[in-house]
Design a protein that fits this description.
The chain is 24% helix and 30% strand. It is of the alpha/beta class.
Amino acid sequence: MKKRAPSIFSQSPSKSAANNKRGRKNPSQALGPVQHFTVDGLTHEAKGVARSQGKVTFIAGALPSETVTAQVIKSNRRYDEAKLLDIQQKSAHRVVPECPHYEHCGGCSFQHLTIEQQRAEKMHWLQGQLRKVCPDQRLTELTDSPFGYRRRARLAVRVKDQQLRLGFRAKSSQNIVSIDNCLVLTPQLQGIFRHLKAELKQDSVAAKIGHIELLEDTKGLSVLLRLTATISSEEHQKWQLWAEQQQVDLYWQTPGEHRAKVPPQDMRHYQLDGFNLTYYPQDFIQVNATMNEKMVAQAMDWLTPNQDDVVLDLFCGVGNFSLPLAKRAKQVVGVEVQPSMVAAGQVNAKKNQLDNLSFIAADLTQPAPKTITSLGVTKVLLDPPRAGAFEFLLTLVKLRPKQILYVSCDAATLARDAEYLVAKGYKVKRAAMMDMFPQTAHLETMMLMAL
């Protein structure tokens, strides 16, 4: 299953941590002087890049071509990090963020930049990552609406001093930024968010909720409440009545449960390429429905599966690519590590009467089973998690497929894997930047390789 959330880095136990356990405190780093900087670049995390006396300084919120005043708040041997204090000369691409919570919320990082320039910066960074494997290749773009696109969200909940905090984590922090609305959510989810917050403000159940998951698909809207404490039957009934009034499906994940218990008749579904795909409410699906449709259509166009092809769909989930592939190819085998998603894929194949589609459960970081190596594969589509698919590449090159379509949510691991495949004889034919998450620093990449 692919993880789309930003990476969270935590430090392993160290000498400093051991000192803290003994009651010693790490000395606070003194703030540097206030300085003037000329910004000449932008990192993929939307931090301005400036140089002072030959040393790189990263300034969150600053844009290329701007002259700013900032103060160093963290100094390392190779670079500094500075806090933006003032902008003397603004970039022509700077805009006022539409979201009032933008300065503090960690959900978005690019709203102070025009959408056109956001995509230009993402494209520039992607070209840099892929320079070794396709230096002369012109990358294309796949884009859609800059707001109102997200059909799934996970909200943090906390009640302190009888005050409700409902929203997302702050930038570089575990603190919750309480929000009134989120502009990247679909309009329908924005509406249910407002109703949900109003109800939680006046209900003691809020103190017993760890997080909330909002979801919209072709079945409608749903709200999942992850409880940290047991609630009474009266409280349960009250929320069920609220859900009926709001016309949403309500799911409960009780304390100690790894996943919510959902009967078969309450499974979710979404439509794609003429199919109806069933999935468990907490299974992964692409959060941008419109871009997902465009991405799948582009994948079919690039890979051109036909009635002579045996296609392997790796990290397949519930069949997001598998079903469209099976519509066109001779045979498709989807491979996924999570048994629940494999089961959902099998249900989807049966419901949509695709006799040429099968699913198997396998950990693709381990040696491949014979059910994969004996297929006579002609084409492969892979859509791995952020860590990439390096452990499977040895098997992949032994399969010797004519074409490989790689969909990536991390350009750095894509570049690493692509370099390996190029060294084994594959050539990059096409590549595209897919702006799946506008207003954020995240991007998707699609790459077609062939022998």
